């Protein structure tokens, strides 16, 4: 059933023995989630968000990983959907928010020139449905003393399109706190453009698939150009995701895209590695990809 569901609606799949093992593994992980939150088995990596014009680090995105005692490091794409199903995402989301807000505030204090470093945190559908989300965010801001304007919450289009009335109400409350809202993976969902104008949002993250099309020799920037123009016209900030080459970075710079993120600049990394980057205040990303 899950294999069929994974292929979208109205699909059927013939049973194979391997699927049974995968389903069992899924069940085991699901059952293990609550325990792992209490056992603090999660870690955060952080990926820099860079000013494309100056090369300076402007922000960081917190990305959660599960350090499973038996299975090693598990990627969020594997366990976030399970955490959504079980509701464990609520406790996990609070932990992510708290840990990342405290860490970012420390970086702001420790590294001169980075006083307004922004933090990007991913928020999933179930978290936005929870009535406590606004209180949770307000409390974390207070506890960490992070300026609300330095916190950007990232939601995908499909999340924004679900339960629109109550979602919009909560997003407005979050914005009233001073928090900023970004649409993640913009262009891959199916939000109607007329809606975009009415949503309480501050920025768009241009999906990696559009950046991928900007290849040397076969440059198809049409869609990226359209999203950058759209964000400019709607007075939204644009962040290009998944920049992997110098050509892509240059092309986006030429298009006057504000900010970028991707392996070309830096992969998600442990907090101590972020500190090392912030420490070299004159650090600039050159033509060479950073490893
Ligand atoms: P996302 O928020 O769109 O994050 C970007 C993903 O692309 C990350 O994968 C990042 O490691 C990867 N990435 C960044 N630059 C490049 C690049 O240049 N090339 C390639 N190939 N990949 C790149 P990751 O860390 O596996 O996260 C996947 C997704 O899991 C995230 O997508 C986000 O939707 C979700 N996620 C991660 N952390 C959290 C969290 O704390 N809470 C929630 N609710 N979701 C999370
Ligand atoms: Mg994101
Ligand atoms: Mg994304």
Description:
The chain has helices at residues 2-6, 17-38, 76-86, 88-110, 125-129, 133-144, 157-161, 164-177, 193-196, 208-212, 222-233, 246-254, 271-279, and strands at 42-51, 57-68, 72-74, 118-122, 151-156, 180-186, 203-206, 214-215, 218-219, 237-240, 259-260. The chain is an alpha/beta fold and 291 residues long. The chain has 2 domains: 1-39; 45-278, TIM Barrel. Helix 2 (17-38) crosses helix 3 (76-86), helix 3 packs across helix 4 and helix 6 packs parallel to helix 8. The radius of gyration is 19 Å and the shape is globular. The N and C termini lie far apart (40 Å). The site of one magnesium ion has 4 residues, from strand 6.
Provide a short characterization of the protein structure.
The protein is of the alpha/beta class and 291 residues long.
CATH hierarchy class name of the largest domain: Alpha Beta
CATH architecture of the largest domain: Alpha-Beta Barrel
Tally of domains: 2
Distinct small molecules? ligand C2E, magnesium ion
**Overall morphology:** globular
């Amino acid at each position: 059933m899950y294999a069929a569901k994974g292929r979208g609606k109205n699909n059927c799949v013939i049973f194979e023995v391997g699927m049974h093992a995968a389903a069992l593994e899924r069940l085991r992980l699901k059952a293990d989630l609550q325990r792992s939150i209490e056992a603090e088995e999660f870690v955060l990596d952080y990926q820099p968000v860079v000013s494309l014009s100056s090369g300076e680090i402007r922000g960081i995105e917190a990305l959660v990983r599960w350090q499973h005692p038996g299975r090693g490091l598990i990627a969020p794409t594997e366990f976030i959907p399970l955490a959504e199903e079980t509701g464990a995402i609520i406790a996990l989301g609070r932990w992510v928010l708290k840990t990342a807000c405290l860490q970012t505030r420390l970086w702001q204090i420790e590294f001169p020139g980075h006083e307004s470093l922004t933090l990007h945190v991913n928020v999933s559908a179930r978290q936005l449905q929870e009535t406590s989300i606004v209180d949770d965010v307000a409390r974390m801001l207070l506890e960490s003393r992070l300026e609300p304007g330095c916190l950007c919450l990232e939601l995908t289009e499909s999340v924004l399109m679900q339960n629109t009335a109550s979602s919009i109400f909560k997003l407005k409350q979050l914005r009233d706190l001073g928090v900023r809202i970004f649409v993640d993976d913009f262009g891959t969902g199916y939000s109607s453009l007329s809606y975009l104008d009415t949503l309480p949002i501050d920025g768009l993250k241009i999906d990696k698939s559009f950046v991928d099309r900007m290849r040397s020799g076969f440059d198809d920037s049409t869609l990226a150009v359209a999203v950058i123009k759209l964000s400019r016209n709607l007075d939204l900030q644009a962040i290009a995701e998944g920049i992997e080459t110098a050509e892509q970075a240059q092309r986006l710079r030429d298009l006057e895209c504000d900010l970028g993120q991707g392996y070309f600049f830096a992969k998600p990394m442990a907090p101590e590695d972020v500190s090392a980057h912030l420490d070299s205040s004159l650090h600039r990303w050159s033509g060479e990809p950073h490893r």
